[in-house]
Amino acid sequence: MNEMTVTTPFGEATTEITETSTGGSFDFSGLENASQRIFCSIPINTPEDRKKLFKIAQSNDNKVDDMCNKTIELVDVYAEVATLKDGTKAPRIILIDKDDNYYSCTSFGILHALEKLFYIYGAPHYETPVAVVPKRVKTAQGHTLTLTM
Description:
By secondary structure, the chain is α+β, with helices and mostly antiparallel strands. 17% of the residues lie in helices and 42% in strands.
């Protein structure tokens, strides 16, 4: 069995690597105490890749919320721990599609959906895009974002 361990801003994650990159376990706990503050699945091989990553990490132009009920052909994920105005910490997540469009959000709902996606599909970078559809769902506190297929 071949396994891959990834340190994310939310803890360590281990997944079994198979032909379909399925299986394994991702643990996104430890958000408050994470020593690793950035997770990135984008392959970084050239200076141009680094520029692309920096642009994505700095971007806040396209929102996941604007993509509700629309398909995103997901290939990569960028995540970091963000400090909100009230001082609490939350996951800032950027979903990158097959055409290098990227969509950002700060959402525990998306985080939990990605945790399940990573468990089932394995860790990104996905050579074959995974079609996900952001949805807004009601919660006791108002609403949150999640991903469906």
